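Annual report, structural modelling task.

Input specification for the NAP complex:
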Amino acid sequence: MTLTATAEDASFDPHTGERTGAVPHSTADDVSRILRRANGAAPVLATLSPAIREGWLAAAAAAVLAASAELVDLARSETGLGLARLEGELARMAASARFYGAVAREGSYLAVSRDDLDGESSIVRGNFPVGVVGVFGASNFPFGFGIFGHDVASALAAGCPVVVKAHPAHPRLSVRLAQVVRDALAAAGAPEGTFDVVVGFDSGLQLVDSPLIRAVAFTGSQQAGMALVERGTRRGIPVFAEMGTVNPVFVTPAAATDRDVIARGFVDSFTLGAGQFCTKPGLILVPAGHGFVDSIAASVARVASAPLLTAGIAAAYRSGLAELDPHTAPEPQPAGYEVAPRVISASLDELAPGSRMLDECFGPVAVVAEYGTVANALAALDRLQPSLAGSVFSGAEGDEDAVAAIAQLAQRVGRVAVNAWPTGVATTWSQQHGGPWPATSRPDATSVGAAGLARFVRPVSLQNATSIQLPLMLQPQNPWNLPRRLNGRLVPCE
Ligand code: NAP
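The model returned the following structure:
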């Protein structure tokens, strides 16, 4: 990348607010060059076997693990997140990259099928990579949803070159991590253009507007996500936006015997990473008369202040608190982006359409609402925005209120966690990290888990093509040893 631009993404220490460096924005020429290289790599990636791409992803995962100390150090200085959290996130990023490679090699995402129409003609169908994918990472997961996070690794696994836009919350980490990944992919044999990074707001817009970009994956706020969805929709490309909402928790009356454990778990979960999780439980509905409000308040009082990621996120948190609770005096503003956790009490009636309590407030704050009857609580759950995840805390097996709440939440969220908090998202075959709008722009998609590859492929049928005219994945000899559906019958790989 030629760095000749004058504008830059500055880097700040969230503990002090001091500027620690900067990364120049990519120029429009840089972005065009990167896109052309990526477009040149697309047909190469599309024709190589998934097993080869699995090898590239494993090589890149090994390289980031080898550079872990340096990368975590950079991430700490730019995000203010803790050492253990960042080390764990980096290790999970590497494991996820290997997982997506293995999913690609297994091959069921290609959905290969073949039908013999009559004695002489046939039709085959399979999923082809869409081409170059543009990725926008989030501020709050510099590794997990960043330069080599879920979107990037699953797009590469699916056979698509990726151009990722660096998030300005951690610009120095972004360019260094991109360099580590790019070098490792090249050393493993990936063609030039397989992966690159661009820096700056305008570079992001140029990606979405470029005819060479065939799909966009975004993780971040509703405002930015919807702006990009509208922009991409104008030229008919899919924009998979994973956004932020209020993830609800419902505690049944029978679960109230575990009050203090649930209260502590709730506070731990909504203050994790200073509340900067898209899966943060932002609202808990608890049975009245069991002392939940006091127990939660006592737990919150034991949690220390922590810095948020950026000055903008800290300012948005403070103004969000003032909107959620206009009667509370503003707290003194410490150095850096540090804020204190807060819990806000509300009545069920306040959880009505238009209420600020139904919108995410990014940071360590959550709302607790007591309910009188389960029916009223379930009605309140129905008034919330659909979200990424929700939790139900139930009593013993056979708690019918839990059964009703799980069924109801499943209509409105991507994942229901039972007697567990929504903040942990495992990278597995059965994971669904998505949900109906406004949690995402595509309720059929997930940004975590094996099904994430489906965002970056497109089905094509070929009729009456001879073996040599077919791409390798569709050839009758099955050279990639893929599971297939032959004349309607599912045939596993050998
Ligand atoms: P953000 O403010 O939404 O920005 C994300 C990216 O989009 C940045 O690179 C930003 O570039 C760019 N952008 C912003 N507005 C844009 C516009 N109008 N047009 C084009 N590009 C634009 O990011 P964030 O601070 O990371 O957002 C935090 C949110 O992410 C929270 O709501 C959280 O819940 C959500 N989140 C969701 C998930 C999930 O999986 N669903 C995961 C993590 C976080 P510039 O900064 O250069 O403007």
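Residues 136, 138-141, 145, 165, 167-168, 201, 204-205, 219-221, 224, 227-228, 242-244, 278, 360, 362, 388, 433, 447 surround NAP (CB under 6 Å).
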